[in-house]
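#data-curation
PF: Archiving a pair of folding outputs for the training set. Convention for this channel: one message per protein, sequence first, structure tokens after, nothing in between. First:
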Amino acid sequence: MKGKFLGFALGLALAVFMATYAFAHTPLCSCYDNGDGTITCEGGFSDGSSAAGVVMRAVDSSGKVIIEGKMNEDSEFTFKKPGDDYTVIFDAGPGHAVEVPGSEITE
């Protein structure tokens, strides 16, 4: 009887783990220079989830926040280009952040 219970408990634990893994999603974010002094970033998740409301930050080389906002209902965030040495951070929480160096953002 003890062996059957242990087998059931292990099976249940494995099922819960696999279900959690199946619902995992990877954050995605890409940014481009609009050519008019602004940058637009588009975000989402690998499972197709919207990024509306996800916190967006631009930080300088020392990590100081210079711009902060949130993705709109279309999962986009547009801001004035802060100069040349910055990084954009798509921050959807622990383990769900994407950093895009300003040097990689092109028209």
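PF: Second:
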Amino acid sequence: MELSMSSPLPLPLHVAELLKKATVQLKKTHVLVGFDGFVDNILHVVKTRESAEKYTRVERMGEFAERIAAAAGLSANMEMVVQMRKLGGNGPIMANALGAYGSQVTYIGNLGFPAINPVFAEFAESATVHSIAEPGVTDAIEFDDGKLMFGKHETLGEVNWSNLIKHIPAERLVEIFAQSQFIAMVNWTMLTQMKGIFQKVNSIIAPQLTGPKRLMFFDLADPAKRSHEDIQEALHQITDFEKHFRVILGLNLRESHQVGEVLGVAHPADNHAAVAAHAMRLRELLNIDTVVIHPTHFAAAADIHGASFVEGPFTPKPKITTGAGDHFNAGFCTGRILGLDLEHSLQIGVATSGFYVRNAASPSVADLVQFLENL
């Protein structure tokens, strides 16, 4: 379907009109996402407790840091309250958001084995799921100005090529990739065996795919704890995928700084045009289709046609922040799946994230249309 991107309407309203026309196309779209899986515990830190039911939370990360610092050399007892327990991991959250827009989702990852973990039960009913190991666990302590994520990653080592093809034979993997118009391989940082998976997908699966190049999305997921050499090797592998796919690399602002350091590019100034120019420079050095960067208040991207940025619907009082970036990625990639340009795709991305942090839920197309119209 051809979607016209010229319109006298403001960008949010025009994107809303385009999405109304895209419902059928999205329902026909097959997407493949992998390979992580976490149980997310979303936590608040208690500042003062008034009763068994009522308390005041620590709202700012700096205040939490001061409390920890004050306890150095002594001890402290800090109460945390579970706000929700939900599916987690970059892959499941992104896949869940893509599915909410109507795309037919296939997911491969560690969602529980031999039985699917209960937090993924609803997701497994709406998507085709291949689970190869037990999930990790993340305790996400949320504040109004950020979050701290504490992960337990023992089971992530089972996300490797040999275990993958033990559960899904290589021939079947080729079929799954072939039927997918969009593929996302995310959370490289935590999945320490991704190097081998990248190698096998690029050498065994990719050469067997026919037809137009498929979109392939990568999210390194906070590579600060990995060495420059590891990051550099991963970037080389991502560049190699461009032979067979149209590669999109998604980065938050901090990740864009880390990738820039590895590539010898200085940090950009903290403004829209500078971040857009940074995305363009990274794309040129990596020689891939698209680089997209999403700071908190806006997002920017660059492809062969140029660079663009869009202001985000920022809220100072989010209901949830864990998964906001994954929702941005799902929204932006939905725009690219529909063949939209950078500006329109960025608008879908920031609106998807904006809806999610306000409602702690993934939007449907109808939800996002209403959200955009209200902007």
